[in-house]
Write a structure and sequence with these properties.
6 strands; Nuclear Transport Factor 2, Chain: A; alpha+beta; 154 residues; 4 helices
């Protein structure tokens, strides 16, 4: 196996671990650890349109959510795709959802696009994330009325 391929596989594992740490922090109701997975100048656009800036603010706001109406919830993520743009930058598209209790929800109805970067300490962190609620009915209508809008199969 080539050195480049080995390094790329290690980076892929590190990025998966990064997203898993966000899920673990969420499940533990730990806003501080959640925020630490983001860069100092990160941007988090929630699916309701709220924009948070910086890991500290993201962590603080999520702690309030974890202490409030997200208390006892878990975050499940499944990586759909990832692409590297140089040695220290990648874009990850994940499907996910927030749910109560253990186990996996029946469907993962949200998508998130992450820009992740390797910082000077060698750690991968989230520089930006944007979350979207999937609307299957609207997709179906769009695809039926305008078939050219259907994405290519992967």
């Amino acid at each position: 196996m080539s050195e480049d391929r080995t390094a790329r596989e290690a980076d892929t594992t590190a990025i998966r671990d990064l997203l898993e740490r966000t899920c673990t922090a969420w499940g533990n109701g730990d806003g501080t650890t959640y925020g630490e997975q983001f860069t100092e100048d990160a941007t988090d656009v929630t699916y309701v349109g709220t924009v948070y800036h910086g890991g500290a603010e993201i962590g603080r706001a999520h702690q309030a959510l974890f202490d409030g109406f997200l208390k006892g919830t878990a975050l499940t993520l499944e990586i759909e795709s990832h692409r590297f743009y140089g040695p220290d930058t990648a874009v990850v598209v994940a499907r996910g959802d927030v749910h109560k209790g253990s186990g996996r929800p029946k469907r993962l109805g949200k998508f998130a696009t992450y820009a992740v970067v390797r910082e000077s300490d060698g750690q991968w962190r989230i520089a930006a994330v944007q979350k979207t609620q999937r609307k299957p009915l609207f997709e179906a209508i769009s695809f039926r009325l305008q078939p050219a809008t259907r994405p290519a199969a992967r």
